[in-house]
Write a structure and sequence with these properties.
By secondary structure, the chain is mostly helical. It contains twelve helices and no strands.
Length: 254
């Protein structure tokens, strides 16, 4: 069994921050948030979890922001930052695959300090293709070329899907996954996509998904003007995210 890549002290701090975030979110009283967290979300978020911890972090960041759970969201952000610090420097570039969703969630919760922190972009020239470019037409086929069966499955604001009840967790998961992909494509728009969408197209799709999630959580569709919080609580020794230049994709064989 290979040794853990995490600094043991920072790993312990990370896991505690994630646990605190989950416990506080559970205490909010929102039934659907509690359902999504289930009984073991803190263990699934842990550094050595066999579950896809990074994906769950992003899902919960959107869910917490839509449920107006700013305190659990900040703890989740602090956990992610501490987790990055716990890794050796060469492995910290993994944060770049999380930044678009974390930034979006921070903006919606008016945690402006974190939104600014998560706004760092990769040092990639415009000629470098996004790793999501070729996935756009497959991942968002339902949005580009609607199918009546897909429309019934996803539902709309006016006609919600029957899939939300009795167990809403799979539907939340479906929408949260889609929003993560959409935020990544929106962020990497300068590198292109294969469906011809503009930034506005992506932003509108994200907005619609977010409204559907809020509707199911039992919140008004209009986000309140949450108090601005420009502060960030950084791990000791944190000096920002490492610079990263993605490697251009290999040219296809001719």
């Amino acid at each position: 069994m290979s040794a853990s890549p995490f600094d043991p002290v920072l790993e312990k701090q990370t896991d505690q921050l994630f646990k605190d975030a989950v416990d506080l979110a559970r205490a909010s009283g929102n039934k659907d948030v509690k359902r999504y967290l289930c009984r073991k979300a803190d263990k699934e978020l842990a550094c050595r979890s066999e579950y896809n911890s990074h994906a769950l972090q992003l899902e919960l960041s959107i869910l917490f922001s839509m449920a107006e759970l700013t305190d659990p969201l900040e703890l989740l952000f602090r956990g992610r930052l501490t987790q990055i610090m716990a890794l050796p420097p060469e492995r910290r570039i993994a944060i770049y695959f999380s930044l678009p969703t974390l930034r979006w969630s921070a903006e919606k919760a008016n945690l402006t300090g974190y939104a600014k922190l998560f706004s760092k972009t990769a040092n990639a020239p415009s000629r470098v293709d996004s790793p999501f470019r070729a996935l756009a037409s497959r991942k968002f086929e339902r949005l580009v070329d609607p199918d009546p069966r897909e429309e019934r499955f996803y539902g709309t604001l006016e006609n919600p899907s029957h899939g939300w009840r009795p167990d809403p967790v799979p539907m939340y998961h479906t929408y949260l996954e889609e929003m993560i992909d959409l935020t990544n494509l929106l962020s990497h728009f300068p590198f292109g996509n294969d469906i011809g969408w503009t930034r506005e197209d992506y932003a509108q799709a994200i907005h619609t998904d977010a409204l559907i999630i809020r509707q199911q959580l039992g919140f008004p569709l209009t986000m309140p003007n949450l108090p601005e919080n420009p502060h960030v609580n950084l791990p000791e020794g944190f000096q920002g995210f490492p610079d990263w230049t993605p490697i251009p994709p290999a040219l296809p064989n001719r």
